[in-house]
Amino acid sequence: xxxxxxxxxxxxxxxxxxxxxxxxxxxxxxxxxxxxxxxxxxxxxxxxxxxxxxxxxxxxxxxxxxxxxxxxxxxxxxxxxxxxxxxxxxxxxxxxxxxxxxxxxxxxxxxxxxxxxxxxxxxxxxxxxxxxxxxxxxxxxxxxxxxxxxxxxxxxxxxxxxxxxxxxxxxxxxxxxxxxxxx
Length: 183
Fold this sequence. Notes:
The protein is mainly α. The chain has one domain (3-182): Up-down Bundle (Four Helix Bundle (Hemerythrin (Met), subunit A)), CATH 1.20.120. The protein has eight helices and two strands, in the order αααααααββα. The chain has a two-stranded antiparallel sheet with strand order 1-2. A hairpin with a 6-residue loop joins strand 1 (140-142) and strand 2. The longest helix is centred in the last third of the chain and has 32 residues, at 151-182. The protein is globular. The termini are far apart. Residues 27-33 have low confidence and may be disordered.
């Protein structure tokens, strides 16, 4: 197995978690039986926390931003019209990093829109990985850090971010489901 195969598997695990969350596939251990509702997508468990919608949008924006950057390509967000479809009141380059609680609350897309954008970014990511060799992973892509960040480390970081955010979204969903069941 090549290192690029391991990265592809990692990105596929993020995809599986996103789809399980949005569709309610219990085989993945997260999500409701019938799929996430819009109310659940936008619930805030403490009034100003991140919503499931924002977490999934943000992890997808980060993947899109970072993969496009290392690939030297335009982001799927703008190239394929997703920014227009989402219609968010942010600049096109916004990824969610550093956003306020108010801005988090403005991310209110449907599950279908989130899934469509995620799938487009995932497809771009997999195509990019398919063109890489293991030697490519040693290329330095960010010299602002000590040590400088290589392509392999950057891609692994994106996978970690995606897995963390899907787990956070699953937690929010679980809290929302238990609250609804107790009501």
